[in-house]
Structure formats: C-alpha cells, structure tokens
## 1
Amino acid sequence: MNKNVKWYLVITISVILLIIYAGYFFTDIGRGLRGDSIEANEPLNNNEKESGNKLPIPPLLKDKNPEENKAEFDLKVQYGRKEFIPGYETNTLGYNGDYLGPIIKVNKGDDVKINISNALDEPTTVHWHGLEIPGEMDGGPHQVIDPNTTWEPYFTIDQPAATLWYHPHLLHKTGEQVYKGLAGLIYIEDEASKKLKIPKDHGVNDIPLIIQDKRFTDNGNISYDLSMRDLMNGFLGDTVLINGAINPELDVKNEVIRLRLLNGSNARSYEFNFSDDTKFYQIASDGGFLEKSIEMNKVSLAPAERAEILIDLSDYNVGDKISLRASNYKLMTINIVENSNKTTDIPKDLVEIIDYNREEVVRKRAFVMSGMGPMVTINGKQMNMDRIDEKLNLGELEEWIISNESAGMGMMNSIPHPFHVHGVQFQVIERDGKMPPLNERGWKDTVMVDNGEKVNILAKFRKKGLFMYHCHILEHEDSGMMGQFLVE
Ligand code: C2O
Ligand code: CU
Ligand code: CU
C-alpha cells in the first residue's frame, strides 16, 4: 500500500474511533465506562413474580473407576435446546446435556482421567479453572479439541478441598461458548473437608449455585451478538439465571444450609445479599476454606470468583421464605418447607492456611491492565499464542503487582478488571497498600482490580508448563487481554 494512503487510513480510523468514544462518553453508557456500577449501567429485570421453577441441581458425574484414589470421567461437549422462558426454545451448548454440565467430584490425591469428546462442529477446549496441574493438562487455548475428536487429560489432585469450575478457553471464542452454556463445577474433598461439621448433602443442604446473566430476544433466544457497548463493558444480560433457571425456588429445612456460589457470568459482578438483611458466614473463597468463618451480610463476586457460605435457618418456621438477591434484585426464593431435627452450629475454625513469607519473594512482576473496548491490554500487549510473556522457575515465590490503569484516556475511567491466573492458587496480601478484606485472605485464583487500584499477590508455581493470565471479563479475554507464562 502507498504510504500516504496508509496514513490517510490511520487518521480516518482514529477520527472514527474518537467520535464513537465521545458518543459513548457523553451518553448514559458513559456512566458505566466512567466507573459507576455495572448494575446501574444496565439494570436487571426484577424477578418479583413467582416462577414456580424449582432450582435445578447439577448432578454429580459418575466416576467410572472403582479403584480407590483413582477416578475416570466422561464428558461430551454437545449442542442442546432449552426452554428458559416457557413456550420458547433456544439453541444452547452443554456437557453431557443441554445446558451447563455435571459436577466433577474428586478427592485430594486422586489420579484423575477425563475423556472429553467434542460433538460440536466447531473446536473447543476444556479448562480446569483453579486446578493446579501441569500446563499441557490445563485446557487453555493450546489444547484445542477439534470436532469429533477426544482429549484425554490426566492429572493428580494436589491441592486442598475447594469448589472450582471448568469451561471452554478457545482463543477469541470463550465468551460465546461459555455464554451458550458450557460451564460446570469441580468439587475437591480432603481430610479437612470430611472432618468439618458443615452441610454435605448434595442438593439438600449443600447447594451449588451457578449464577449467570443472559439477554433474551423477543422469541426467547439467548443471543450473543456483541454491540460496541458489549465490547467495552463485556456482555451484560438483563436476566439472571441460577443453574439455568430464572428466579428459581429452593426448598430446604430450617437448619444450616451451605450455598456454593459461582459467578459464571461473562462480565457482570454481583453483590449478593439476602432479604431481611439475613447474615451469613463465608467459609471458602476461590481455592478452598478460609481459616475462620466470617460473618457478613453481603458478598461481592466478580466473574469467575467463588464463595461458599453458610446460612443458619434454624430460627425460621415452616412456611417462611427468604430471597437471595443481587443488590436489590431478587434472584432466588428459599422456602422453608420442613422442620429439621438437626442442630448444627456454624464452625468458627475451619482450616489452617500457612501464609507465604514476603521476605522469601524471589522476583516481583508488574501487570498493568489498560486500554478500552477491543484494545484492552496487559502490559501494553494483546494475546499472542506464539509469544511467551513471562518465564518463571518452578517452586519460587513471586510477588505480582496487578494494577488497573485504563483510566488514562482523558477523563475516562476504566471499568474494574477481574485478573485470573492459571495453574495456581495465590494469596492476596495488599489492596492499595492495605490488608485485603478478611474474605480475601484465603486461597484465590481470581482477584478484582478496580479503577486505579493496585493489588499485590504472592504465588508459588508448583506445576510446569505454559499457562495463561487474563482478565476474566470474557469479552476482554477474547479481545486479547491475556498473556502467557512458562514455568520451568
Ligand atoms: Cu476461568 Cu483462563 O479461565
Ligand atoms: Cu483458569
Ligand atoms: Cu477486563
């Protein structure tokens, strides 16, 4: 191309982008970009009506290997059809079913093999979010499963009890595949979790909750057509689903119940709370139990973050109900339908977590998240599969300093970015120079980094291979807000 023509193009494109930018900034969409809450930016439909939907409970996946300390599972990635809104069916994706996937439950120390067959006519990957396993088994963008082929990763569970999850990680396609329904939970159990006196009856008093927002078309389809606004903020739906149901109902006894919350949304963050300001106790963060249960009346989760909480319903009577909410929006009704004969207490002490010693840090690295829309970057770079951004040594303690500096463009503030690291559970030691809140002092694999904020984490990488770090707003990830590190 002629040089002058090239410059002409560059200038024209810049001017167009500037006009779009100004347009967005001065409209109400700009509110979100200037850092107001995402919920204010795009409100949710309030689910006041009783839906009559019972909360679907994802089943526990059958372990095909009868031997102790070994487990083998089959997963099939498939197309599905689902009626989210009565009378309307929509195309979906699922693992072993129409939508979402079964729970893979394993024990610490298990040798696990998983046979994943891809029945789609497009490639996918299956990433084990939160597992500490070698890079080749991680299921990131390099472990592509082509249509009609099988991928059989195997690994040993080498980390404490936790609620983790799995989802696709195909380059540029993660947002769409997760949105259409590809996500499932992983439970790890260990000696400590077996000993703890907490609810453990799956679907009865130990309840998985996968929370995701969707945008329905007039005919009940879940559409994933990204507007400019979606590229900016990430895709925000207007209706929240729990385990695939709108405004579901959960029937329980008046006893202590355990909710395992996963924010499986593409981009939306939630501040969960209960009606009547009911207090609860957080007992686990992303990577496992906290040292002590923490009394709270709300908990915020960014995309990909998890929290396990206990609620004591023993003061309620049969016929009472409370609702789980996100800010002021009702997400689920909990009906107390039966008297319990159990008297459970909320345990105060949970597990012991040995804090990393900052003095033993071998290396510090900075990760600066910046840019906007499709130009979001980490350290000024966008994802390149052929480039290794960071090289690490196995077993060394590192301090990563993660900041969000996308507020640089004129008056524009950035939106918060949830930073996720593969292959490791880390400890958050500082938020803007201060101690992090109590519920961030356990194991984490994803951490929210707000406008202009700086978060320091300590991490020891115990598995070899190539891994990703990225923003877990899936549209940002798909735009290239991701990098690669090699552990040797
Ligand atoms: Cu939840 Cu890179 O992933
Ligand atoms: Cu991950
Ligand atoms: Cu982001």
Note: Helices lie at 3-26, 29-33, 38-41, 174-179, 191-195, 228-233, 474-479.
## 2
Amino acid sequence: MSQLEQTQSRYRSLRMSAAADELVSLLAQAEANEASYLSFADQLAEYEMVQRQHKRLTRNLKLAAFPSEKRLEGFDYRHQSTISKRQVNALLDFGFIDERNNLVFIGPPGVGKTHLAIGIGHKAVEAGYRVLFRNALDLVEELELAEMKGELKKRVNQLAKHDLLIIDELGYLPMTRQARFNLFQLINSLYEYRSIILTTNKDFTNWGEFFHDDNVAVPIIDRIIHHSHIFMLGGESYRLKQKTKS
Ligand code: ADP
Ligand code: MG
C-alpha cells in the first residue's frame, strides 16, 4: 500500500470519505498554492464538512418528497398580486414552525398555492427542518391503509416526526367518514406540536359542507385555523394565462 493509499484508508476509517476521495486533488492544489500546513489541515476539514452538508440536504429533500422542483425564486409576484414578496419573505425566518403555527393558502386552481407551499418547504429543508409533502388524497389513502392494518397510531406518529407537514389540495374531493376520522387523528397529534401548510380551494365557510357538517370536521378546521396565517389568493390561473399567451 502506498503512503497515499494508507492515508486515504485512514480517512475512510475516520468516516471522512469525501476528503479521502478528493485527497489527491486537494494535495495538488495545496502544493500549487504553497499553502501553509494549517491552511491545508483546514481545507481538508472544510471539504468534508461541505460535502456532508450537501449530502444531508440532498437526502432531506428526497425525504420531503416534493412532487416537483418549484422554487420561490421562480415565483412571479407580478402575476400573483394577492400575496407580496415581503409577506412570503417574512415567513422564511421560520418563526411559524418554531411557534407551531400553520399556513393556509386558499384560492381557486392555478393561482400558485402549491408552488408557494413547495417553495417555502424547500427553504425550510435548507434551513434544517424536517419537511414532508403530501397530496391530501394520498395522505388520506395512506392513513386508511395504516388504519386497515391496525397501524394508524404508528403512522400518525411517524408523520408527526416532521417539523412541517404540507397537505396539498384538501377539499378537492369528498372524503368518507372514516377518512375524516383518520385525518382528525393526524391533525390532533400535530396540534400545537408541529406545523402544517395547507392548501385548499375551499373557503372555510364552505368547509362545513365539504366535511358534511359532522362532528369530526369542525374540530379539524378549528385546530388548523386556531394558530394560523391565512392567505387568500386570487387572480387568474397562471396555467390559463400561459396558455393564452402562446
Ligand atoms: P394551485 O396550486 O393554486 O392550483 P399551482 O401552484 O400548481 O397552482 O400553479 C400552477 C402552475 O403555474 C404551476 O406550474 C406553477 O409553478 C405556476 N405558477 C402559478 N403561479 C405562479 C406565479 N405567480 N409565478 C410563477 N409560476 C406560477
Ligand atoms: Mg395546487
């Protein structure tokens, strides 16, 4: 084993495999720049740290399961004037997550609710929060499956491990009574403990109707609204506008 291979192997046993992989080029760089011993020692550590952060971010983004790569940087506030960049930026210190508050985006289809939810969720992952995105119907199905296996509580606890749960498109299709009950179990577990971003096309005044005015629905709505910032989004559908442009 050469000296280089031995050093790389030592780094690997110390779990510094990124530095081990990059050792040759880091060495060449240091030699070319006549770097000091201290600066080289620092560069190795820095390289390993940056690579680890990058890996962690990639892993957490994958775990968040965003359905698409929407970013706040790509959000056009000239098109969507019922929410301002200042309002959105004010959310990005994530005080709302730390204080276990919810965000609710209400509005008709195509006005950017999902885009905003993913964009904010993405920033939250970057800031180190555990985030999970779920379409409301998928979530309900997931809970139903767990419930059938007698594992509802377990699944709810797993979901509640996230700092932020994004529930997208609640209210688009009606739910069975059992589905509403399962959802209530989840919301109840998250209440004042975790944050939710909810997007919906239903104004709260219509929610009673959507949930069939039953005694499970009212507490769900109550608990989501209780500590929440509500944003009513309006305007034209962005999709339609793009269509008519071309
Ligand atoms: P909603 O969830 O309100 O139905 P979406 O967020 O899915 O709407 O938006 C529909 C499409 O239009 C998406 O591709 C989204 O990225 C885009 N879009 C909507 N509003 C904007 C906006 N203000 N700036 C940029 N893209 C937008
Ligand atoms: Mg949507």
Note: Strands lie at 102-106, 131-135, 164-170, 195-200, 228-232.
